[in-house]
Specification:
The chain has 259 residues and is an alpha+beta fold. Strands 1, 2, 3, 5, 6, 7, 10 and 11 form an eight-stranded mixed sheet that branches. The longest helix is centred in the N-terminal third of the chain and has 17 residues. The model has no long low-confidence stretch (mean pLDDT 98). It binds 2-oxoadipic acid (OOG) and magnesium ion (MG). The site of magnesium ion has 8 residues, from strand 1 and strand 5.
Length: 259
Amino acid sequence: MLLELAKILDNALLEAREVERLTAQVPDLKLADAYRIQDEGIRFRLIRGEKVIGLKMGLTSRAKREQMNLDSPIYGVLTDRMQVKAGGTFSLKAKIHPKIEPEIAFVMARELRGRVTPQQALDACSGICAAMEILDSRFVGFKYFSLPDVVADNSSSAYFVLSSQLRNPKDFDLASLAQLAMSMEVDGKVVQAAPSSAISDNPVNSVVQLCELLDARGLSLPAGSIVLAGAATQAVQLVAGMKVRLTVEKLGEVSVVVE
Ligand code: OOG
Ligand code: MG
């Protein structure tokens, strides 16, 4: 059954079309099984030659939990083919209904496992940068799905873009990481803004939470992983012609042009 559900979602991805939420068919779909569907979906992508390069946290800010009407943090997997070049173009061709959101990314120098403190998580990083995630839910209308639905759908993750300005974590302490102004502009006009504390009170806490979610499944956070900490604000619908730019105080900027 799980494999069948994973196949439905994988076909939706390949054909760029929306499908009914899985819980319409399987109302009692458990979160643990939703992560297994997510695993299968990633396995299909690996068979097609993609490589896992990181993980994303989702629903780590109140703005996102309210936008999606869902209430707990979740994770998804990032592959190399999901990465868009900084300053590059993003084509709406073969996408369903993509949205973009402002994030902060960490690059892990060392493996982390189980319960770690925020300071241990920060010490295990080799880089921090501004990032944007492009979500593209495979569910009808990008709404009315439950937590197991979105987890099965790789937590809505579709693409991401990392700033080419990678900062040294040694230049930051925990307090300073929670005080960075983040501002996302479309065509030069600010459309979303929030302090970095909007993400899990401190974006590094998203790394801590990710380790706990992984540990509950017997997994660790591998060395070398990119970690998206989750959006600080609501996501914004992408429209052809937009130039989207995120600026994060002390981290730098990252942009993408939609075509
Ligand atoms: C779920 C994914 C949420 C974030 O950064 O909070 C997420 C969704 O909004 O569809 O990626
Ligand atoms: Mg996100």
